[in-house]
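Minimal example, chain plus iron/sulfur cluster.
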Amino acid sequence: MYLQSRRTFLKGAAFSVAGAAIAKGVFTADAMAESIAESKFTDTPDSLSFYPPMEEWSDFKELDGNDWKRGGIERKGVRSEANPDGIEVNDYVIVPTACSNCEASCGLTAWIDKKTFTVKKYMGNPLHPASRGRNCAKGYATQSQMYDPDRIAFPLKRAPGSARGEGKWIRTTWDEAMTTIGKKMGDTLAVGDELSKKNCYVSCWSSK
Ligand code: SF4
């Protein structure tokens, strides 16, 4: 929730201080009610109109958020070969996808730069029936997972002969990884103790 202005921010800060002071018994409950009445916060969006309509997803242009570093607002026109000093405008195709950072699998949209065919950012998907355009911070961090040079790009397994915690790994295949994990889960469900069985879950919101 964002504060509307510096003045309102100061009121909001005063409200926080008042809350702390009330806890110490310095102010009355009336003072707190007055502070709440005077605090003016901007509304969080009650609609998802800040997303472009789906009809524009195949061709959506947006000012580049980093472009201010190249100069002030005096520049004219869109940047191009003929106008290299112009303002950078991103030409996007917006593609629906889903977050894989937890079992909720919220909707995301990948904003793909048509010039480089790279994803420049992830936003929510307002048409997703569950998340409806909202995501937690991990959803937006999908960008880092895709392009972080230190990301783990393939499955790893503990190096033969090394002990847990030594941090020694070798590359393995997806087939071997899935087979190994599947077998261990199957063995646990077949002969494991109750707690181990409960800790084996394979799909959304359910323990199996
Ligand atoms: S956005 Fe957050 S809550 Fe939604 S699937 Fe991703 S990690 Fe889970």
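Confidence is low (pLDDT under 50) at residues 1-27, 203-208. Strands lie at 60-63, 89-98, 107-113, 118-124, 156-158, 169-171.
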